[in-house]
Amino acid sequence: MNRFILILIGGFFCNSGIAQDHSDANLMKSQPYMLHADKADCDSMDGNNAEHKICLNLEFQKVDSILNKRFLTYIKEIESDSIRQKIIEYQNAWVLNRRTESAIEAEGYRGHMLSIAYISNMIFITRKRIEELEQLIKYK
Fold first, then answer.
1. How far apart are CA 68 and CA 25, in angstroms?
2. I need a surface site. Which of 47, 90, 106, 135 has the fewest CB within 10 A?
3. Residue 68: which residues within 8 A CB-CB, separation 6 or more?
4. Number of other CB atoms surrounding residue 112 within 10 Å
């Protein structure tokens, strides 16, 4: 497995005990290629893989932030401490699963394409979880 995926998965385990998990977005922000984020034109990409990776990274940070806000909104509505704790545990497991699924999806790719596949899947899974949380909030 590529070193990028191992760093991503390994770096996340240290923050898995909290409900509002920013470790994925924080690690994505700290990637060396993000030093060039100010030069990326995400509205008009020229097909450059490095720029595509930067733009996906920025999109992931955005959707992950939305996810954390939705999760906090949802968790605040839960009155029972024991149920709230189970939901927090589920969310922490979900975060680990998102990483694993994305690593599996990116398997076999190399270089920029590995990162593009991994981050694209992280975005896709995160958007689905946001939809779930919005439904849970709506029908609570």
1. 11
2. 47
3. 20, 21, 22
4. 15
Spans of all domains in the chain: 3-12+21-36+49-138
Among residues 99, 124, 102, 123, the alpha carbon closest in space to that of 114 is found at 102
Model pTM above 0.90 = no
pLDDT in tens, the chain (140 residues): 454 444 444 444 333 344 567 889 989 999 999 998 998 888 886 768 889 999 999 999 999 999 999 999 999 999 999 999 999 999 999 999 999 999 999 999 999 899 999 999 999 999 999 999 999 999 87
Q: Write out the two tokens for 115.
A: 């990162």
Q: Which CATH topology does 3-12+21-36+49-138 take?
A: Substrate Binding Domain Of Dnak; Chain:A; Domain 2 (1.20.1270)
- Identity of the amino acid at 109: Y
